[in-house]
Amino acid sequence: MHPNERRNVILEQLNKKEKIDIDALAAELNVSAMTIRRDLNYLEEQEQIIRTLGGAILNKPLVMESSFQTKEGKHAAEKRLIARRAVELVQEHFTILLDSGTTTLEIAKLLNQKRNLTVVTNDIKIAAELMDSEVKVILTGGEMQNNIGALFGPLTEQTLRNLHVDLFFLGAHAVHLQVGVTAPTFEKASIKKLMVESAQATWLVADSSKLDQKALAKVCDLEALSGVISDSGIKAYHPRELPELLEVVTAEEEA
Amino acid sequence: MHPNERRNVILEQLNKKEKIDIDALAAELNVSAMTIRRDLNYLEEQEQIIRTLGGAILNKPLVMESSFQTKEGKHAAEKRLIARRAVELVQEHFTILLDSGTTTLEIAKLLNQKRNLTVVTNDIKIAAELMDSEVKVILTGGEMQNNIGALFGPLTEQTLRNLHVDLFFLGAHAVHLQVGVTAPTFEKASIKKLMVESAQATWLVADSSKLDQKALAKVCDLEALSGVISDSGIKAYHPRELPELLEVVTAEEEA
DNA sequence: CTTATTTATGTTAATTGTCAACAAAAATAC
DNA sequence: GTATTTTTGTTGACAATTAACATAAATAAG
């Protein structure tokens, strides 16, 4: 019997019994009490259980607000402002492509109430967010990146190649005047590049912490973008130097 | 300082600190460890805290288990039993295809501690469940069915056609001796059919309420299955009449 | 297929936490 | 003021935990 199997048995028992006893489990599973103890310590590290004297109980997680536990990350307020500005670009009957990421997730939350809209995404958190809405959602498919919920790989790329959308909201890790938009891995860059190519218009959504940064893999030049939406930090940057064709929108707090 | 005062101090600390330590408290409150222990035992009797080794944590009220609000549906206990029996078929390095549905979601929950496993699915709840695990997850892609989180449509079908897996767990709406496995829409049936075709082995997982039922669209004959896992209700059905090639496993409560 | 390496498990002894029993102290009742 | 109850501290027996090491099993490497 594998350790994982054994741990599953323990969890199963806890679903019925509220509390389990180490010695009883050891006898039942024909292993030493020490092994059970190690299992319990492992499960406690995973925050699945809580150790008690001679046993353990289930660790009931706290209630979460959204489908996913959305711990308020860095620049959350900025992202919300950007998202609010972004949805103004969305018209009825549009097909919209949403990159994976927290900024685009904020956009998804605002699209929640729209109708006659199709959203394509490679982010399962975005899909989950729109699950109970009237928006039509298409997931690209692909291999899921753990802890993030973004889909990557050949399957994703193949889907994107057969796609055309009206509007693409591109999230970025790094944007730079000369270098353009870049991503930390070739895999991500490749996906984003395909997304740009399959969209009629691409708007970059990025809070100011991403500006003036460079990363490994090139996604596209700034010229490929229809516009940029960022928070007021972009002012401290140099909006005048951005190519003229580029409409730069600065999201700001409303009065 | 009154005993009740002291106990309130303990509870206050627990609201901030998640876990408290007996010796530290004893020193801080200038009482013996034994006194703190008695306080903690008292508070545990009141179901306000839970004792751990050398300390205590707050007793949180009951909440949900999974990323999604999984209101305990019909036949939940049966589904869990079936799931437990099903994962016994899973070997390391397997690639497993999971149909969308609540029974297969239960299977996913049990898989989430396994390693060296690849899971393919068209259900975003299953994907979400496995997001924080070490299991490699591949989503088929496709159009998301609202309120359920299952992916359908041509995109899904195309992905399935280019796929081969070791083991497929098929969830069913209706199973019948003569008619075989059926689904309520052609769209769903089409997906399930493709899944059966792309798998080395197909095991049907269905609680007994699904047995002896017919629906509109045919998925496959019983002969196409490698086996069936159901709860004990299947006994009231007619296991002897099932085709001989079919191994029927009945999941039952352990002694 | 064999060997090396990692991982999992068992055993022990030292440490730490727990409990029960009793005694002392404090609070309360009469 | 004394009696009674409640609370607290102390002690020793016992149980659980941990760390450290040894062994076995599984996996990877050659």
Automatic annotation (TrEMBL), chains A, B:
Protein name: DNA-binding transcriptional regulator of sugar metabolism, DeoR/GlpR family
Listed Pfam families: DeoRC, HTH_DeoR
InterPro entries in the cross-refs: Carb_Metab_HTH_regulators, DeoR-like_C, DeoR_HTH, NagB/RpiA_transferase-like, Tscrpt_reg_HTH_DeoR_CS, WH-like_DNA-bd_sf, WH_DNA-bd_sf
Any GO molecular function: DNA-binding transcription factor activity
Domain HTH deoR-type as annotated: residue spans: 3-58
Keywords attached to this entry: DNA-binding, Transcription, Transcription regulation
Listed Gene3D superfamilies: 3.40.50.1360, Winged helix-like DNA-binding domain superfamily/Winged helix DNA-binding domain (1.10.10.10)
